[in-house]
């Protein structure tokens, strides 16, 4: 590990980690190089500061910035329990944010899809920082265009997000209904974890709700997920409201009874080896946070998700 300041703009290599004070320096995500050059890059981290699809409290447009700031606390190559630094295995850059025009919301879904497609066309995966959970829908459209339909979705969430009260897709509670009916994802090979809301029609998704997780334990959850997705191509989406509000108060639609940060980490660490092709972490709303604990939880879980990607066979 080398000592270097402002590594996000001064590091020469895409690989490895640097020691840098947590309280200073250019705040890229996990101190990775800021770059739009995707040559030999495995993952491009990109923010989508969008929150026009929320049904409760807004503010997730500030999520990407908060996650970048919190990530400085864990960017020195220290990843407990994994036994390796993911940045010794995969090349990751911070690609910056997708520009969205809030004055023309009808254009935003296509803007997001195009933004992600431009990255995927470089044979580079994305890790997207939200933003509200609607962004997963245009992202999945880009992934289905690149990899084919019928992807597996691994969704950590308090809500199903498969409601169909509205015909329009601009809604952070309906986007997985549209993704399913359009065939972007295969519900029989997908799983929703930590759910604690109610819906009459689950559209065929495998649901491991909060009671299932608390009763069965993290190891059985991870095993069940692996059994469900098999070797299918997987997209991993983590809504921070999957965590109980005690661990993640900074979100728009908090629901009590959720899993802890430790449980989320334990489950994620049991997913090593799955065929993951893309990821997002959404719904961090720093205005409702307490001492930045939601953003810190999100950034730390994102590091775990990076490790899953780095552990692919």
Task: Explain how this protein is built.
This protein has 313 residues and is an alpha/beta fold. It has a single domain, classed as Ureohydrolase domain (Arginase, Chain A, 3-Layer(aba) Sandwich). Helix content is 29%, strand content 15%. The chain has nine helices and eleven strands. It has helices at 7-10, 63-71, 108-120, 136-147, 175-181, 210-216, 218-229, 261-269, 293-310; strands at 2-3, 18-19, 33-34, 43-48, 92-97, 125-130, 152-156, 191-193, 206-208, 234-239, 276-282. Helix 4 runs parallel beside helix 5 (175-181). The protein is globular. The two termini are 26 Å apart.
Concise description?
This protein is an alpha/beta fold and 313 residues long. The protein has a single domain (2-310), classed as Arginase, Chain A (3-Layer(aba) Sandwich), CATH 3.40.800.10.
